[in-house]
Amino acid sequence: MADTYTTITAPSEASYTELRSKFLAFAHPVSSADEAKALIKEYANKYHDARHVCWAYMIGAARTEYLSSDNGEPSGTAGKPILGQINSFNLTNIAIIVVRYFGGIKLGTSGLIVAYREAACAAIEAAEIIECHEQSTITFTFGYLAMNDVMRTVKQPGIRILSQEFDNTCRITLSVRSDEAPRLTSLLTAIPTLSIL
After folding, report:
1. Domain range summary for the chain, segments of one domain joined by +
2. CATH class of the region 134-196
3. How many CB atoms lie within 10 A of CB 33?
4. CATH 3.60.70.12 matches 4-132
5. N or C: which end of the chain has fewer CB within 10 A?
6. Cα–Cα distance between 79 and 31 in angstroms, integer?
């Protein structure tokens, strides 16, 4: 199903050591590129004494929004291997940051690729991976007299009420699986006095 994707449930971390260079890897669930970038900035500030803070992220069920950075490492030796692990596990809505403390011995191109790949892999393996569904938000208004019909329609598994206001004109915002949204919209529009916003 196009709206189904896999991600991690909570932040995880791992470390990897190669020829005295230490690689600290952090995996985080994120829901947007802005959230991923803010997280990356946070780690860059926290580990400002590290030689490199490299990263990659992937966003959305379609897995078309992604970015990676070598942060000063030779081109393609850090960001791409991290992104490669996100792809290997078929994950999205995830950001992985790998912090490198240089141990005094150069690892060479292939050594760096292996180290960043292994560190990212370890962080993913330390996390719990779950299947999720892309969500859509539906907001609508209706007359107070239609309350029973509306509540009967929205009290179904997989539908979450995000906000509700009850007055002469009531307003509800719901979150529902994207592939269920058209069916729910159609049920709601059949209720008199209801209008989808």
Report:
1. 4-132, 134-196
2. alpha beta
3. 16
4. no
5. C
6. 20
Paired strand residues for 65:
59
Q: Which tokens belong to 20?
A: 């005295």
**Among candidates 190, 187, 165, 191, which has minimal Cα distance to 176?**
187
List, for residues 13-43, the tens digit of each pLDDT value.
999 998 988 999 999 999 899 999 999 999 9
Q: Are 4 and 63 in contact (CB under 8 A)?
A: no
Residue 131: pLDDT above 90?
A: no
pTM score = 0.75
What's the one-letter identity of residue 93?
Answer: N
Query: How far apart, in whole angstroms, are the C-alpha atoms of residue 120 and residue 152?
Result: 46
* Residue 84, helix vs strand vs coil: helix
Asked if 153 and 184 count as a contact pair (C-beta separation under 8 A), the reply is yes
